[in-house]
Amino acid sequence: MSSYSSLARLVSQGCYGDNFIAFQSDPAQSSCSSGQGTWKQNHLYQLPGNSNLYDDSDTAEDLYISPQPPAKPEVNLKNVLSGIVAILTGSNKGLGTMLPEQESDSTVEFLGPEVNGVSSLHSSVCAPSAPPLTEEDAINYTVYRDLLVADPPEWLPDSCTKVCMQCNSPFTALTRGRHHCRFCGHIFCRACSKGRCLLPAKFRLQDPQRVCDACYDRLQPVQETLKHFISNAAQSAKHDVMDWTCTRGWLNLPIGLSMEHEIYKAANTLTNYCQVARLNPEKSIPQAVLKGASGLAILTVAKVGALLTYKLGTGLVVYRRSDGSWSAPSAILSAGLGWGAQIGGELMDFIIVLHGYETVKTFCSRMHFSLGAGLSVAAGPVGRVFEADFRSGDRGSGLCYTYSCSKGAFIGVSLEGSIVTTRMDTNLMFYGDPYMTTADILLGTVQRPIAAQPLYSALDNLYSNLGC
């Protein structure tokens, strides 16, 4: 007597009779024997071939032969009409002719043993194929929960190890320095700690931090959650005062060290422009140009020199969608040269109007070039610069119109050339996603960050005056 868990194994082991196999429905209690004899099992499966399953000592009550599948109901006009009548009247009248009669007597046992006088279904009858979604163990969040509530570690001292704790390579001063993993506090070399991840709330850090390879793999599943709650983009803007009571509002610096600073500079530039346009409409950007804009690039650039001038500055670019809403901002840096009859130095707040989808795609390039000509006049705190330039990059090319308000002492007419690059590190520190590209930010589905609310308020104010 041997027990088998499946019919396939039973057949493969050769445990069969002359032409038949018998075993119970419960695999744990399945048994078989070969040859002729008395069979008292719950189920009997007949193998192909003609064989007499009964001998003189067996009776029909001792054996159960699996019932034949019910015959398919005959499809005729009467059955179809009866079904339609049953559907319309909401009754089962007439269905008796369509369904075969079920035998009331069956030797199949669906009930299990009684427990405390109460009958229950056999375990093989109702076995769920998957755990319910409401159960705690349906989707295991234990690991993620532990990560989200993790406490900052105590960093190991540099003297505790002379080799990397992952690759065991010895540390050197120049080629293999020590780096602490911000999540576990252990010491690794640069090659084993290249990843940057957002850390849980208890670390009180909004910027992606250096972590080791093992911690990087552990933190990846919760990065999307942390990006929406911990990143700099998800924080409310702290600096939103742009009048004369705040020193930040007096003068925009040409270099912004963070996206938050770039947002403040851009909002301040737009606010100042709206004030100038309200006082002197002749010096504002034509309404037709602004209405047809597909996007805006807003920069603060320092320019100095004589005959040959040098330019450097940072800013951001936003895309205007077809429904009139604005995309998330992307940080950019501009550096260039100018040649012509010019002398002096000035600080310029640029508003570059992007016309056409192709021009916006130009700013999605990692780097693009611009070439144009302009007239610049600045005397004291107020000046004007009007330029038209052509920009080209690996993603596209297009024509842009530039308006700026400048401060300083400068005069001249020049031919301008510059290189504009996307500040990927600034975007990473702001959004917290190392895989996010400029096209994802401007042309994708990235939601408008909460930290950029002052910028969107200034843009809405600019276009509300235009009636669009």
TrEMBL record:
| Annotated ranges, domain FYVE-type | 158-220
SMART domains recorded:
FYVE
Alphabetized, the UniProt keywords read:
Metal-binding, Zinc, Zinc-finger
Pfam families (alphabetical): FYVE (PF01363), Ysc84 (PF04366)
Q: InterPro entries this protein is in?
A: SH3_domain_YSC84-like (IPR051702), Ysc84_actin-binding (IPR007461), Znf_FYVE (IPR000306), Znf_FYVE-rel (IPR017455), Znf_FYVE_PHD (IPR011011), Znf_RING/FYVE/PHD (IPR013083)
An annotated Gene Ontology molecular function: phosphatidylinositol binding
Question: TM segments?
Answer: none
- The protein's name: FYVE-type domain-containing protein
Per the UniProt record, the source organism is Asparagus officinalis (Garden asparagus)
